[in-house]
Fold this sequence. Notes:
The chain has ten helices and two strands; from the N terminus they run H-H-H-H-H-H-E-H-H-E-H-H. The longest helix has 43 residues.
Amino acid sequence: MTVVDPETQSSAPTGSTVAGPSSWVSELEEEVGDLPLSTRLSIADALTLGNAICGFMAVYFTTTGVLVPHLMGTSDGAMSKHSAAGAVTLMLLASVFDLFDGLVARKLRSSAMGAELDNLSDLISFGLAPAYFVIVWGIVSDDAHGKVAALAAVMVVLAVVLRLARFSCTTLRDGVFQGMPSPFGAMTVVSLVLLELPFIPTVLGVVGVAWLMVSRVEYPKPRGRLALITFCWTLVSMGCLIAWTLNVPGGHGLLQAGAALQCCAAAVIPCFATTRRVNTFRANRREARTQAAR
């Protein structure tokens, strides 16, 4: 039904009708009422937004607690313990949100925006936040070179962007990721910095992680028992960070051990995955030869 303004109709030519403001208002209300329920935020989407918030706050902690005191000359060390630990803890919390939003989305409903929100949040928490952490480390560390560190950080961001874009437009067999998952890559990048290795090995390690994220190496998805192991490992990492921050006896050693284990896992998993892939290829080839001989 079209609502016509009497005053407008009186001034319009005979035989024509001119719709008043109430006409398009009613049509707009009808369109809003017809929005599908799938575009409304779900519980999984709320967890994904928590992921994005943690990533942004990690950047904030790195800036206000590490970079700004260094630039103002009030820093008491290369990397402030409290601020660096706070930033890394927030990235770990972001990985927890990222782990559970997928589990909740599979158990409950997921909105049509879920995949897009997840990619955007991952870009903030596991692309921008760790790359910025590397840049600040390159600025505040005595033996580091800011421009080289910035170049390595750019490679991390580009790797995450390319990985997320490829994930959105390709379909893989169920249960695996192609390339190192971005949360795992982000934690490995941060662990390399916290290990306090010389500058060159650290930068090479960061570049290597960036390459693994865009590689074709298959990684298992954290489901079932693996999801529980991942969650427990994240809690242990948070405990190591808290012990390091509070100067608990042996806290620094715990942090170094945790960071070293993270880096070792990042190096060992691709080797196992590659070995398994080669063995599968050889087995298929032998089977094909056997069938051809028959």
